[in-house]
Design brief:
9 helices, Hydrolase TatD, TatD/YcfH-like
C-alpha cells in the first residue's frame, strides 16, 4: 500500500487523461493521495476532486510565489473550506526565494498567517521551501508551528535541517529527486533519517523520478521513490511502503 502525500492532479497537465492516470495509480497500489491547491483555481479543482473520488484528500493554502496576490477574503475562504472532512492540511505554504514575483516580506507575512490559520483549524502544515531554509525554520519556531506539525514537502535540505524540523513535529517528505544519480542531500536524508520520520510523494506532474525523468510525473511513480529509499536503507520495499503509509495516515488523521 502506498500513500502519495503531494500530488497536483488539479493541474492542466492532466486535463486529457486524468481517469487513466488515476487508474494507473490504483493499479500500482497507491491507496491514498493528497491533492494540493495553492491558489483560487487549484483549490477549487482540488475540492471538486475530493468530492468525486473517495481515496483523494486535499491540502489547501496559498503558494509563496503568489503571496502578493493573497487577500483577507482568500484566507477566510480557505478557513471555511478547511472544515470539509477531507481537507487534511493547510498548504502548500512557505517561502520561495528563487522566483521574485512576491517580495520576501510579503511572503513571510502570508506564511505566518497560514501557520496561524493551521493552528486555528487544528490541521498540519505543508511547507514549500526554495532557497529559504533559514527563514522558514526561524518562522516555524517563532510561530510555534510544532503545535500542529506538518510536512517538509519534497525536502532537499541537509540531514541537520531535517533533524531540526523533526523536533518541531514535521515529517520529512522525499520525492523524485531522491532517485536522481547526483542528488547527494536527498540520498543522505533517506539514509540517515529514521523511517518513522519519512513520507513519500511525487509532486506530480513535476520532479519525475528516474528512469522517467524529463517526462510528466504521475502518482503511480511514487513506488520508485519507495524503492530507492529501501535500497539506500538496505531494507525491504514493503517495510518502506508500510511505514510511510502509516506515517501519512497519522499526520493527516486518516483512518487506515
Amino acid at each position: 500500500m502506498l500513500f502519495d502525500t503531494h500530488v497536483h492532479l488539479n493541474a492542466d497537465q492532466y486535463k486529457e487523461d486524468l481517469e487513466e492516470v488515476i487508474s494507473r495509480a490504483l493499479e500500482a497500489g497507491v491507496v491514498h493521495q493528497v491533492v494540493v491547491g495553492f491558489d483560487r483555481p487549484t483549490i477549487t479543482k482540488a475540492m471538486e476532486l475530493i468530492e468525486k473520488y473517495d481515496f483523494l484528500y486535499a491540502a489547501i493554502g496559498w503558494h509563496p510565489v503568489d503571496a502578493i496576490d493573497a487577500t483577507d477574503e482568500d484566507f477566510e475562504w480557505i478557513k471555511e473550506l478547511s472544515k470539509h472532512p477531507k481537507v487534511v492540511a493547510i498548504g502548500e505554504t512557505g517561502l520561495d526565494y528563487y522566483w521574485d514575483k512576491s517580495p520576501k516580506e510579503i511572503q513571510k507575512e502570508v506564511f505566518r498567517k497560514q501557520i496561524q490559520l493551521a493552528k486555528e483549524c487544528g490541521l498540519p502544515i505543508v511547507i514549500h521551501n526554495r532557497d529559504a531554509t533559514e527563514d522558514i525554520v526561524t518562522i516555524l519556531k517563532e510561530e510555534n508551528a510544532s503545535e500542529v506539525g506538518g510536512i517538509m514537502h519534497c525536502f532537499g535540505g541537509s540531514v541537520e535541517t531535517a533533524k531540526e524540523c523533526i523536533k518541531m513535529n514535521f515529517y520529512i517528505s522525499l520525492g523524485g529527486p531522491v532517485t536522481f544519480k547526483n542528488a547527494k542531500k536527498p540520498k543522505e536524508v533517506a539514509t540517515e533519517i529514521p523511517l518513522e520520520n519519512l513520507l513519500i510523494e511525487t509532486d506530480c506532474p513535476y520532479l519525475t523520478p528516474h528512469p522517467y525523468r524529463g517526462k510528466r510525473n504521475e502518482p503511480s511513480y511514487v513506488s520508485l521513490v519507495a524503492d530507492e529509499i529501501a535500497r539506500l536503507k538496505n531494507i525491504s520495499v514493503e517495510e518502506v511502503q508500510k511505514r510511510t503509509f502509516e506515517n501519512a495516515c497519522n499526520i493527516f488523521q486518516i483512518n487506515k
